Amino acid sequence: MNGIYYYIIAFFIIWAVALIFNNKLSKYGFEIDFPIIMWRTERLRGFIKRISDKSPRFWKYFMNFGIVVSFVAMIGMTWLLVSSLETITTTPSVSLVIPGVEMPGSSIYVPLGYGLIGLATVLVVHEFSHGILAVTEKISIKSIGLLLFAIIPGAFVEPDEDELKASSKLSQLRVYAAGSVANMSLAAISFIIFLVISSYAIPGNFSENGIEINRVVGDSPASEHLKEGMVIESIDNHVINDSSSYMNIVGNFKPGDNVTVGTNQGSYTLTLDKNPNNESVGYFGIQAAKHYELKNNAFGPLPWVLFNLADLFQWMFILNLGIGTFNLLPMKPLDGGKMLEILLSYKLPENMYKPLVNSISVIMAMIIIVSIIASFI
After folding, report:
1. Do 122 and 183 meet the contact criterion of CB atoms below 8 Å apart?
2. What is the domain range of residue 236?
3. Which of 137, 165, 236, 282 is the most exposed place for a label (fewest CB within 10 A)?
4. 225 contacts 211 by C-beta, under 8 angstroms
5. Is residue 209 part of a domain?
6. What is the DSSP string of 336-350?
7. What pTM did the predictor assign?
8. What is the number of structural domains in the chain?
9. Which residues make beta-bridge pairs with 149?
10. How does residue 310 score in pLDDT terms, banded at 50, 70 and 90?
11. For 230, which DSSP code?
């Protein structure tokens, strides 16, 4: 089933329950005002304070370093976004990514389960980090909790705006940088765990045995014949033993080529299409991964869980890094735009830096909107 249907079903179930039990849910801190459901709690505020109080000096020093990293990431992301204008009509750099849903023009497909868990880590870590630094800087937290916008989950930690504006510029920079720095830190941790599992745990328990199709793109050349779970044994009479032999052969085909793919379930001939990312390369419409067999059955099926863990931490890495750095773009209302405004305020008067940041925000927003539209076209 296309992931979009899961979202539609969940939307009707959640909102039916919310509206029917509105009065009861309100007793537990829920506020239901379509299209938003908010849940506020005091327990999370105490949890954030306990974390902050354990080592406030560490959080300040760590976020001083985080401010530098954030501005470096801001410059890098801005350069990538602006330079993408050269290929915006062929390979848009920005596209919508929804877990479980194939988005037109997007080269990334996020699995539903891993994607939702990964997004949950992004939101919770990001918002809680804002809260931790706010408490560390002696700024009150007005509200904290979780929310649902229609069907899109989120979290919020709302520092007192008056106290935040009254604090030092360095304190403000720490608070605004905290969310993205936390996302990038979690991305680094997730990547290390992924490498340990994929480079040591999996090779220690499994041996590579061919290439397995783990996803077939809809309306692609492969969608008429190939299926998930098939093991590719040959391509145009070239034997596929491992990922190296697979990569060496697939990039040699052109759009319009007739290619015979041999699998463990039979052979099929495909007429390749143009690759969305490079029109000169033939497009099969499959995502393939290494196929493994267990070396030792002493632990039964338990070692197979390693693949699920590797996929989970891989998507946690991708989503935390991608969303965390995107949030540092120099445009308001993103944290990057607020940080740029504070940085410029050190040398420029308000009547100069505010219009400058607003202009940059408009330019960034236009590039993003055009890229998304181009991805659909």
Report:
1. yes
2. 218-284
3. 165
4. no
5. no
6. HHHHHHHHHHTTS-H
7. 0.81
8. 2
9. 36, 152
10. very high
11. P
